[in-house]
Amino acid sequence: MKFTQTTLDKIEAILDEAEYVLRYERGNFQSGYCILEQKKVVVLNKFLQLEGRISTLIDLVPQLNVNPDEFSPEVRRTYNDVLEKHALIQAENEKKGGTVDQLTVDGLTS
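Given the sequence above, the corresponding structure tokens read:
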């Protein structure tokens, strides 16, 4: 996958259509993000670079309580791509014992 602004925009559209507010803030983040589930707010570390933002969102999106049937076709396609990549990264992570940020996320359509 190319870590481009377009890819980030497509992943951010998932949160937008799921009615989550995505904010980039500074703070003490263990994992690069914080989910405030009751308010549907996702806070990402604003100091993450583009690659870190994309990797973090790929790790985060599967944890959100969303209904993909309500997504537009393009966003649903991106959502399914993110779920597939997350599963592949999880499998690689278990084999290698690394973290998501250490592994590549190749293959997500951009």
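The helical segments are 5-17, 50-60, 73-96. Try to locate this feature in the token string yourself.
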